[in-house]
Design goal:
The chain is an alpha+beta fold and 344 residues long. 30% of the residues lie in helices and 24% in strands. It is built from 9 helices and 13 strands.
Length: 344
């Protein structure tokens, strides 16, 4: 007769939310897969919650993490499972840990269920490679999660804690959006692994706040929003800013460039340039200098916003092209000669 214990198999399974009745039909395959999948899901939830809250003094988190490891070790170790099935938790308390040379440990030994309880941060780090917890471990995390038997649990591979390559997508933006900033709503569809370990599709709308001055190639990362595969961490989703060509302005770093054509008369006699800025303002610039080939007018602080210097902007550079007449009458030639006599 199996000795009933306060901590029965139901409680072991309840730690991870595994269905007790499913263990009856296939105690080898079903329970181990459920334990691994469910523990991965619940630890992922703990990871997300701990990022947003201070859990450094939360004893229940420590206890749950240690119970989680205990549950996985008992259910996946044939020797411990056999002892547990026959004698319950009390039998495990007197079971020697591996490598102990057969010494037994009683209730007062400080050893629980045949193994030493470990720091919750160590357990978390073995699942995710790092930890947001404040109750510290001084030991570095191992490269794989729960690898007591060469990185496997009774024939099942441990969860890979390496992130897959990020999923990248271009985000085309007009020059006006990059000048003033904008808010973009992006609907995504991705594959996720549900609590039962199956891949399903889900849709979500992500909000991207495009900051004034962002450049082509700027990356916006949404952690864990990429596709998810069984026994792997989900990939990150990365949007990369792409700049649409503009009909009038061209960007050069933080500066804006405009090409302006003027007649020979305007080049020699002066003119006024009227522009509409990227944020809709009217800009009128008088030109009093003689415009010669290669002439460039620089208007300070009328370029693109500088993201790292709020309130500051680049310059607006106006490059001129002088249009020479293709033919002149004899009278016009004489008038030009008289007008330009002595001009250097």
């Amino acid at each position: 007769m199996r000795k009933e214990s306060k901590c029965s198999l139901v409680l072991y399974c309840g730690t991870l939310g595994v269905q007790r009745n499913s263990l009856v039909f296939d105690p080898v395959a079903v329970e181990r897969e459920q334990v691994l999948l469910r523990s991965r899901k619940m630890l992922a939830e703990f990871r997300d919650n701990c990022m947003a809250a201070n859990v450094s003094t939360c004893a229940c988190v420590r206890l749950w993490m240690q119970n989680c490891e205990e549950c996985m070790k008992v259910l996946s170790d044939p020797q411990k499972r056999a002892v547990y099935d026959q004698y319950g938790e009390e039998g495990l308390k007197d079971m020697p840990p591996l490598g102990s040379g057969g010494a037994t440990f009683g209730k007062g030994s400080g050893v629980r269920n045949g193994f030493n309880p470990r720091n919750a941060e160590d357990i978390f780090a073995e699942f995710f490679g790092s930890t947001p917890f404040g109750f510290g471990s001084s030991r570095p995390a191992r490269s794989g999660r729960f690898q007591p038997d060469g990185g496997k649990f009774g024939g099942f591979s441990s969860i890979d804690n390496r992130k897959p390559p990020p999923v990248e997508s271009k985000l085309p933006c007009s020059l006006e959006e990059l000048y003033t900033g904008s808010t973009r709503k992006m609907k995504i569809s991705r594959t996720v692994v549900n609590a039962s370990g199956r891949q399903v599709h889900e849709s979500e709308i992500l909000t991207i706040d495009v900051k004034p001055g962002w450049k082509k190639g700027t990356k916006i990362t949404f952690p864990d929003k990429g596709n998810e595969l069984p026994n792997q961490l989900p990939a990150d989703l990365v949007f990369i800013i792409d700049e649409k060509p503009h009909d009038f302005y061209k960007r050069d770093g933080n500066d804006l460039i405009v090409n302006q054509r003027v007649s020979l008369a305007e080049a020699l006699g002066g003119t006024r340039i009227n522009l509409v800025t990227l944020d809709g303002r009217d800009l009128s610039l008088p030109i009093t200098d003689v415009i010669n080939p290669g002439y460039e007018l620089v208007v300070s602080r009328e370029g693109m916003p500088i993201t790292k210097e709020p309130g500051n902007r680049g310059d607006l550079k106006i490059k001129f092209e002088v249009m020479f007449p293709t033919k002149l009458t004899p009278e016009q030639r004489e008038e030009l000669k008289r007008a330009l006599v002595g001009v250097k």
